[in-house]
């Protein structure tokens, strides 16, 4: 499995921006689909907010963040990113980087999470 470490979280005012980073190690990064999940306060489940294909050519977002969040990856640097713009208080959550080996059924590698807090 990949080892994943997130960074870049913090406190931001509504309407502001943050960029999260995810550093991967341990396996060939290019063989993993990458995604960002979040778990809001008091919520039991994690919600996927972005995913990106092996090459970075395709990305998917739920309606809740579409047009505001952008996922990207740099396979040469073993990095994934989440650019978050026009942040809203409801975006407050712990954000997790996750990796799914190509052909696998689930995300088997997870980071420790980074807190994002959006004040109104």
Describe the protein.
The structure is a single chain. With 120 residues, this protein is mainly beta. It is built from no helices and 11 strands. The chain has strands at 3-7, 10-13, 18-25, 32-39, 47-52, 59-60, 69-74, 79-84, 93-101, 109-110, 114-119. The relative contact order is 0.32. The model has no long low-confidence stretch (mean pLDDT 96).
Q: Shape, please? A: globular
Helix content: under 10%
- Helices and strands: which structural class? mainly beta
> Order of SSEs, N→C?
EEEEEEEEEEE
List the helices and strands and how they pair.
Layout: E1 3-7, E2 10-13, E3 18-25, E4 32-39, E5 47-52, E6 59-60, E7 69-74, E8 79-84, E9 93-101, E10 109-110, E11 114-119
Parallel strand pairs: 2-11
Antiparallel strand pairs: 1-3, 3-8, 4-5, 4-9, 5-6, 7-8, 9-10, 9-11
Short key terms for the protein model shown above:
120 residues, 4-stranded antiparallel sheet, mainly beta, 7-stranded mixed sheet
What is this entry, summarized?
This protein has strands at 3-7, 10-13, 18-25, 32-39, 47-52, 59-60, 69-74, 79-84, 93-101, 109-110, 114-119. With 120 residues, it is mostly beta strands. It is globular.
